[in-house]
Write a structure and sequence with these properties.
Oligomer: single chain
Strand content: 5-15%
Low-confidence stretches: none
Number of strands: 7
Radius of gyration: 28 Å
Largest sheet: 5 strands, antiparallel
Helix content: 55-70%
Length: 280
C-alpha cells in the first residue's frame, strides 16, 4: 500500500480517521454505486440480462448493501441486517444461482474496498495503520453479510420450492380427476411439459406419512426419456408417466420397482392424457 497522502500522526484517533475516510467517500457514493453495478453486470452471468434483475433493482440493492457496510465500520452502530436479508430473499425468488449472488457481493466489496483505499490516500493526516485495520472490519462485515444473505436465500428458496410443489400437485390433480374448465387440461399439460397424446401410465404407490415411497424415481425415469409428474398425499403417491413409446413400459416399471419402498401398482398403457382419470 502506498504511503502517499497518509501519515502516521498521533493526534487522530482510529474512530476519527475512519470517520474522516467515510465522510469523504460518501460524497462519491453515486459514482461508486454505478461502478459496482457495471462490474456486476459485466462479470456475473446471471446479472448480464436485465429482464430479471433490472438496473434500478440492482442499483438499489448495491446502494443498500454499501450503506450497510459503511454504517458498521465505525463500530458505533448495531449492524442492521435488513439489506442482506432482502437481497437474499429477492434473489432466491428471482431464481438467481446462490453462487452468483455471493459472487456479485464479493465484486461489490472488492470495489468498495478499492474506493476506501483510494479515498484514504487522498486525505492528509490519515494514519496508514487505521486503513490496514479497516480491512479487517470490512471483510468481517462481508462475512456477516454473506451469512445473513445465505440464510435468507435458503429460507426463501424453501418457500418457493414448497409453493411450486403445491402448485404442481394441484396440476397433477387436474389431470387425474379431469377437474377444471374446458381448456384447463391443455394449460396444465403445457405447464407440466406433458403431451396430450402419446403413451401414458398412471402409477399408485402406498405411502408412509411423510415419506416418498418412490424416492428419486423421477430422475431415474428421465434417464429412459420418461417424463413423470407426481402428487403425494397421506395415503398414496400418484404419478402420471409419459413414455416415448409403448415399448418403454416394461423398463419404466422396472425402474419403479427398483426405487419403491412400498407396493406399487400401474395402469395399462393409454394413449390420451384425458384418460388418466379412467386409468386411475
Amino acid at each position: 500500500m502506498s504511503n502517499e497522502g497518509m501519515t502516521a500522526p498521533t493526534s487522530m484517533s482510529h474512530h476519527e480517521a475512519v470517520a474522516t475516510i467515510l465522510a469523504a467517500l460518501r460524497t462519491s457514493l453515486p459514482e461508486l454505486t454505478e461502478r459496482v453495478v457495471a462490474r456486476i453486470r459485466a462479470e456475473v452471468p446471471f446479472y448480464t440480462a436485465q429482464d430479471i434483475v433490472t438496473t434500478d433493482d440492482l442499483r438499489a440493492s448495491v446502494r443498500a448493501n454499501i450503506d450497510y457496510i459503511l454504517d458498521g465500520l465505525t463500530g458505533t452502530s448495531t449492524a442492521n441486517l435488513s439489506a442482506p436479508h432482502v437481497t437474499g430473499r429477492t434473489r432466491a425468488a428471482q431464481g438467481a444461482p446462490l453462487a452468483e449472488m455471493l459472487t456479485a457481493y464479493r465484486v461489490g466489496v472488492a470495489e468498495l474496498w478499492s474506493a476506501l483505499v483510494d479515498t484514504a490516500r487522498g486525505l492528509p493526516g490519515v494514519p496508514e495503520r487505521d486503513v490496514i485495520d479497516l480491512a479487517g472490519t470490512v471483510f468481517a462485515a462481508q462475512n456477516t453479510y454473506s451469512d445473513a444473505a445465505l440464510a435468507a436465500y435458503r429460507d426463501e428458496a424453501r418457500e418457493v420450492l414448497r409453493t411450486q410443489e403445491r402448485e404442481r400437485a394441484a396440476m397433477v390433480e387436474v389431470i387425474l380427476t379431469g377437474a377444471g374448465a374446458k381448456g384447463t387440461l391443455w394449460e396444465v399439460a403445457n405447464a407440466l411439459r406433458l403431451p396430450l397424446d402419446g403413451a401414458f401410465l398412471v402409477v399408485a404407490a402406498e405411502t408412509d406419512p411423510g415419506h416418498d415411497p418412490v424416492p428419486r424415481a423421477e430422475s431415474a425415469l428421465a434417464v429412459l426419456d420418461v417424463r413423470s409428474v407426481w402428487r403425494l398425499d397421506a395415503e398414496l403417491s400418484l404419478g402420471v408417466l409419459s413414455l416415448p413409446d409403448r415399448s418403454r413400459n416394461a423398463a419404466a416399471l422396472t425402474v419403479l420397482d427398483r426405487h419403491a419402498t412400498r407396493r406399487v401398482g400401474a395402469s395399462p398403457v393409454f394413449s390420451e392424457l384425458h384418460q388418466a382419470g379412467w386409468a386411475l
